[in-house]
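Field reference: sequence -> structure
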Amino acid sequence: MRFGANYTPSHGWFHHWLDFDLDAVRADLDSIAALGLDHVRVFALWPYFQPDRALIRPRAVDQLVQLVDAAAERGLDVNVDGLQGHLSSFDYLPAWTRTWHRRNLFTDPEILDGQAAYLHTLAAALADRPNFLGMTLGNEINQFSAGPHPDPDRATSDQIDAWLERMLAACEQGAPGRTHLHAEYDATWYQDDMPFTPAQAARHGALTAVHSWVFNGTAQRHGRASVPTEHHAAYLIELSKAWADDPHRPVWLQEVGAPAPLIPAEHAPAFASATVAAALDCPDLWGITWWCSHDVSRDLADFPELEYTLGLLTNDRRPKDIAHTLAALARDHTYDPAPRTTALVVPADPASRSRCAPGGDVFEAFFRLTADGARPTTVLDTRADDPGHLAARGLTDVVTPDQVLGTPSGGTRA
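Structure field:
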């Protein structure tokens, strides 16, 4: 079990790549390591690293290597996100993909060549670093492929399949044998017309990544201390397993945070404690990486209000109460969850994903079972009668949402 943080530089946010200060990075990493965490996820802003399709800036790549080496000196492993892409409500895309040069991010042959070269370059630069975990293709890059993005790069699921295969292959060729993966926001699991599908999330790459944010309707609908809110991360972990072909495919809770005002600062430690405890009750969990390390500076304008206060540490690197909570969990946790033997049936058809979203019958049934102490996981409707699949996963009870929602419930906590 790994505990880490998504690294947000304390000064300049990810614009720090424009004025890279290794001493400031070292101080940031010191404050993360002091919490007892063992890894960070770092973000290379794509247009800063590859401002032209044929120019991947050597100095930027060298600065990334310096950051990874500084992390190693502090006992921190590093996962690197490449195609940024989208961060904290802002899009960062190279000029050679937009406006007068507008080409589809997922289908245009020249764009794909540029992306593959970029990912390969970053991976190859880090291939000999022992603390380099591997590449994540990009942060929630699925948000570019469909609404509600205001200018989406439309693609079919087959085209996304081909894109994922090529980009992951570029990472593998650059750094063979590392943990290369892709990661999307929860529309992959919840949005009917999203071309990035649950099957892709659970089958492409070395492991499955989930990003859990309760501002998606969960906390609004159920409240900050409800079973659905405190177990939302665990739900995504277990939901992902329905589509996995490997019965023990590892799942990485790669992003989870306590967004104000839905989770007020004074309640953030309790939320973190409950969220982590629920996740630690999920078998095959690779690790938990909190969003994020440091607050966004109030000197920067136009971020959504919640983005300024998500850090475990302040801009002057002081740990908040939630940091002490996470540090204690990282230090004192045990990870030995019992198998989950009850499976809730979920639709394999990606056009029915909204049933799994907040308010959907799958979502509500899962948390009815959770509130009643059943410790559910999930199984596809196309596999629910397959004895071999059920046996491989240790499943002994299979229930449908209508069976669950038609029975008395213990309810959720207010």
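Note: The chain has two domains: 2-332, 342-405.
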